[in-house]
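At your convenience, could you comment on the folded chain following this short note?
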Amino acid sequence: MTKKLFVAVVAAGLALGFVACDKSAPALPTAPNPASGATNSPVTTSASRPELLKIMGKWERPDGGYILEIRSVDAEGKLDASYFNPSPIKVAAARAYREGGVTKVFIELRDVNYPGCTYQLTLDDQHDQLFGMYYQAAMQQTFDVAFARLK
């Protein structure tokens, strides 16, 4: 019984430590809740929401050669995504959603030198680019960024 209690206390302490260490990272956005009166419906399936499929592909940030690769979008908007600088950087969370009639992308990076860095991007259909904000967690700074699709 004492060993189980010890394990539970250690696990709870670790969980609280992780939460306390990363208060600077923005929360993962969620699709609007229809019950809240929002006018946009949540992402249901990528097949029924072909506009989400437009974000699939390889995207490059011209200011540094950073590559974002989006391989798929599931029914809830979860992305199968990779990020490179030029080596792979761990993607902790990646999601697409619709807001205000536009497609949005949220990427969270968690790796060495990327302790909760995030991208909050919007698809510009007309210019075939993703633009938005990059939050650099270690420096606690936010930068305007854009990604162009690699052909």
The longest strand covers residues 114-124.
